[in-house]
Specification:
Blueprint (H helix, E strand, L loop, with lengths): L5 H6 L1 H13 L4 E22 L7 E17 L5 H9 L6 E3 L2 H10 L7 E3 L13
Length: about 130
């Protein structure tokens, strides 16, 4: 799937299915998808983790935006250490930017990525009701 455009991905589930099938048949524990974006992140690395379940916090998907590059690693097997190895091998630009640092930070620290600067992407939005309060 390397080099596939976003349109190819949306319109051709067969491409995804074939890429996943080939990766599994070749014994790859995860699928790596890369795409160049039309925008660029000037500083830091935007990250997003998905986990197997909330209790174990075992990462199964890692999404990264750094500069104009989007990279997604999707676990294909029950080799949960595969994504952990990816996290340790990726060169992150600081600060690490996450939607919910209270979720991602402890997982990264468990994987040995600690002592790095973090930035929360979401900013609290004050609630204002119809009366203006």
């Amino acid at each position: 799937m390397k080099g596939a455009s976003r349109i190819d991905i949306r319109r051709a589930p067969k491409i995804r299915h074939t890429a996943i099938k080939e990766a599994i048949e070749e014994g790859h524990p995860y699928l790596k998808y890369e795409e160049r974006l039309n925008i660029s992140l000037n500083e830091g690395t935007l990250i997003d983790l998905e986990t197997k379940d909330l209790e174990s916090n075992v990462p199964i998907t890692l999404g990264i935006v750094s500069g104009d590059a989007l990279t997604i690693y999707q676990l294909l097997t029950e080799d949960y250490g595969a994504i952990e190895r990816v996290v340790k091998d990726v060169k992150f630009r600081e600060p690490l930017i996450a939607f919910n640092t209270e979720f991602e930070r402890p997982i990264f620290e468990k994987l040995g990525i600690s002592g790095v600067a973090w930035r929360e992407l979401q900013q609290p939005v004050p609630y204002v009701d119809d009366s203006g309060q």
